[in-house]
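Q: What structure does this chain adopt?
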Amino acid sequence: METAEIRRRWLRFFESKGHTVVPSAPLVYDDPNLLFVNAGMVPFKPYFLGQESAPWARATSVQKCVRTLDIEEVGRTTRHGTFFQMNGNFSFGDYFKEGAISYAWEFVTGSQDDGFLGFDPDSVWVTVLDGDDEAADLWHRIAGLPQERIQRRGPADNYWSMGVPGPGGPCSEIYIDRGPEHGPDGGPVVDEDRFLEIWNLVFMQDELSAVRSKTDVDIAGELPRKNIDTGMGLERVAYLLQGVDNLYEIDEVYPVIERAEDLSGRAYGKDHDDDVRFRVVADHVRSGLMLMGDGVTPGNEGRGYVLRRLLRRAVRSMRLLGVQDAALPQLLPVSKDVMKQSYPELERDWARISEVAYAEEEAFRRTLASGTTILDTAVARAKETGSTTLAGGQAFQLHDTYGFPIDLTLEMAAEQGLSVDEEGFRTLMTEQRQRAKADARSKKAGHGEVTSYRQVADRLGRPVEFTGYDRTTGEAPVVGLFTGGQEVDRLSATGRDVDGGGAEVELVLGSTPFYAEAGGQLADHGVIRLAGGAVVEVSDVQRPMPGLVVHRGRLLEGEVAVGEAATAQIDTLRRASVSRAHTATHIVHKVLREALGDTATQAGSENAPGRLRFDFRSTRGLSPDELAAVEARINERLMDDLAVSAAEMPLTQAREMGAMALFGERYPDVVRVVSVGGPWSLELCGGTHVLNSAQLSLVKIMGEASIGSGVRRVEALVGADAYQHLARENVIVNQLTDSLKVRPEELPDRIGQLMTRLKEAERQIAQAKAQQALAAAASLTDRARDVGGVTFLGHDLGEGSTGDDLRRAVTDLRGRLGTDRPVVVALTGTSGGRPHVVVGTNEAARGRGIRAGALVKVAAQTLGGGGGGKDDLAQGGGQDPSRTAEALRRVEDELRP
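A:
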């Protein structure tokens, strides 16, 4: 049975049982604790946690998931994979244990001819939590399972929680006996290779007040509404029903291995090391395909780094299989063809996906060349010092600066007999991630605890209404008040004064005209005036959780209390400026797609007063002529006075109309569509906009550049800011034309002529300086002396001597001192306040083991820096020019016996 058919049967079965079929959420999900969706229930967490009311009593889905904790184990065993699909059925206060067990038994053991899976009932074993007699009795009564095939296990195996206070409960797992050839008898408590788990039923019945570990929780009582959350591993069921041994051999994965066999001329199953590489390729190509399908692009951090690592591990594995040509153009289409049955959007977005993937492989091929050279240098330096370990900082630099994945550094260092300080690398990576997460958390949640915010949301009992689409003021009561991270009932301006600027405060109103930062649009500013005379200056507005709007600012005067009436007034000039930038962003997006094709989709944006930043997916940049044409087309559209409007409609209708949506965003069933010029530009958008394009007046593109693999950025000024910029440029042009006595259109040629003359003058000056330096150096040969049987010449050429000057002088002096005996020349000099040192050796000196690279390191370290080079000529620098004489003495000391 095909994997896609299993998926179809699952959804049909549960839809027939009254479940709403919920499409898979994107792998990129709005959860600060997750890089990717890693379990089928993740999109349903807000409902289970009580943050939102579930729109259905019953739901079912087949959720795309990615787990990367075991990425190094992929291929080494047949049980680890990064991408997988999780079938799930969910009940929100509807059916409970009896219903879940009845559905599971029917679907697992029902006849294949009738649309079920058709597993032999005698092969089914289950586990329940020790003490959950209700579940055990239901399995016996509903399924007729004998007691010996209903095994009881402790909470480490059969109790579920989210790891934090909230819902929890016992679970029951379904296993299939694969037969005696796979291990000993005795059920899953004896052997979980022979008895393979395929389905976990979680019975959410407990309210947990504390979770210290998986086996140590405090149960406060029963949940008022009991829920069901189940998860069936689609790939596991597939390889059981397809009669293969593991997930790498199912119909959605193995075709990639077959293609890799064709390309490499090697056979899967013949060699252990090759088999590991084949499995890495098959898994990572599929995972990369699905991530790119959901809008992830390669990068050096976060989700982008995971994708980059997957693609580059796949490419390197193909190289280790002997394939030196580009591999992804041969492998990725194979994966797409087998996955598009379940995910037809892969075919629709293939142009974008393939463009990103192939560009990443080409970039990696260049990285392999440069990164390997850098790694080889680092390895050589480590060996010179007698170390057997490559420093974590060097591994981090290779990753962070050059995009060299750590696993490649580990593999390639091991090939040269070195280990890598992984702990040091992980520490640096963790510090980097923590900085990024801390910034994101502080921006989103401020100082308040999410638990406190949730309590306010629960008391309100509904989402905070946004009234700002058509109003700039609004009246509403204060329903929540926070200061210093704590919820309070009242606060005075002198209560927590900060630098004399008023008390920091966070307010939640029952409704608000203030726009909370979202979708790239910055938050509104303004004031909130309380009935008692207090005034709050608002400088930020955020949504720390769905449905709750928090106004952050300073209480300038008076006292504010929960329940008090408030009047909110936004800064209308700022709002208008931001709205112009947001509408301009939509127009920029559309014009870029006209210029570059439909693959130029949005990858992020920021709409600020008078300016915009727009990130888009593209593997190539715009030429100056193309960028000028894009700018001209944008302003042409402004003059067309295009109407701008917004309308709410079902998500399915919006997609049918062709409305653009951001990859990874989670949209409700009813969405807001903003149109510019009718159907010309349609985007799902919750932001604020102008009424027509003419209100933007002018858009001036300031630049376009790459910000990562396959992602580029346009920055532009809008309206008055664009005009002021052009006015400043006009003043500068007038000044230049007056100074150079030319017309504006002649400026480029005139400046080019001046630059050519300047470069020629600089060249002549440098040539004269070099001749002077050589002439001065020629007289230094008389200062050479014998040091331990070596002719040594050390001298400081003083201020104005660049590294190039020193290299020429060292080379000249080394030749003048002859070849009949060992010669070492060391010169120092200073330019721009920084010292330089160059050391040269002749062949006779190198024959005695004297290396210029080793000597220059000694000198450069004395100067407070570093250096290196070849055995015959090496260069270094430092920070302290006062120690040049000492640096030369240190080189001389190295030559003494």
